[in-house]
Each structure stands twice: as C-alpha cells, then as structure tokens.
Amino acid sequence: MPCTELHVKALLIDMDGTLVNSDAVVERIWRAWALRHGLDPEEVLRVAHGRQGHATMAALLPGRPVEINLAENEAMLAEETRDTEGVVEIPGAAALLAALAPHPHALVTSADVPLATARLTAAGLAVPAVRVTAEDVGASKPDPEGFLKGAAALGVDPADCLVLEDSAAGIAAGRAAGSTVLGVGPRATAYAPDHHVMDLRAVRVEGTADGVRVQLG
Length: 217
Known about the structure:
The chain is of the alpha/beta class. The chain has 8 helices and 11 strands.
C-alpha cells in the first residue's frame, strides 16, 4: 500500500487486539460465560471486544443488577489474568514500543493492571510507563474517558494524538475523544478508522522537534 505520513504529538495505544493477540483467551472465557447464561457465544463475542467486562454484561443482560455484573467481572478478570495460553504479540508490537520509548505514548486499555501486566509480559512486551487502565476510569470504551485521560497524562491535546485500536468500541472512543484513529488488524476494517494497517509491522515512528512522525505502509 502507498506510504502515509502523519505528524502527531503522542500515541495512545490499546492493548488487546492492538499490541497483544489475546483472542484465544477472550473467546474461551466469553464463550463459557455465554453458555452459562443461555446466550449465543457469537453474539456475545461481537459485543465483548474492547469493552470492560461489566459493560459487556450490562449490554447483553439489560436490567440485571450492576452489583452482579461487577462481581462477575472481578471473577472473570482473575480468570483471564491466570490464563495466558495463546497470548502473543501482534506482529511489530515489540519493535514499535521500543521505537516509541523516548517519545510521548500511553497504553489505554479496558484491562486492569494485573491483567494488562500479565498479557504484555506473556507476549514479551514492555509495559508502557504511562498507562490508563480499568482502575482509572468510570466509563468503559466506547466512552472516550480513557483516551482523554491518556492525553492529559502526557500533557497533549487529544486532537494531536493518534489512537491505535482494533475494536468497534475502541475506535468509537478514539473518535469521540477527537483523535485521529489508526485501525489495527482485520477486525478494525469494519469500523471506518481514519487509517488502517493489517499489523504493526506497517507502522514506523521517529521523533521530531515537536512530536512524532508516523509512517504507515
């Protein structure tokens, strides 16, 4: 594909599906949850990617008490943290994080700290120094809160950030934050991101006097 060049102040990067391929774990756990609740696993998986677990439960079981969703979510997070079988890096993720190390970037994930740490470690990836996790937000993606907090932590206007995302909820959150959105992977193509790459091998970064130059392609 032809090379596209973007100039931004910072990158805000999702984890699952963007830096880490955790689909095997996500599908195992959510399929089991769906069957326990008499739901179609395929329908559940269409909703689950990119959101906090309790938000997925609320969308699929409207009217169920929030307390039950939160309790189930806590148990599910613990199970996901223990289960790292099949968790691998998205191709190019390690190289991208290494290249970004001296430049403004943040992890913005729906996972909590233990789960994010477990998955990044299992995939052999460094944990970014600046991160926004489930503990830091009151609203799950597609709400833009996580990306707004990530930009604020870096001291950058969200409009000057490039969001890297793979899911419908994440792309919607990045768009709502006012950022440019780069979709990563085949799942992202359906959600009309501003730009798209099949994996992170197609993303190259270098520092500039006032930010980061991002080349795609």
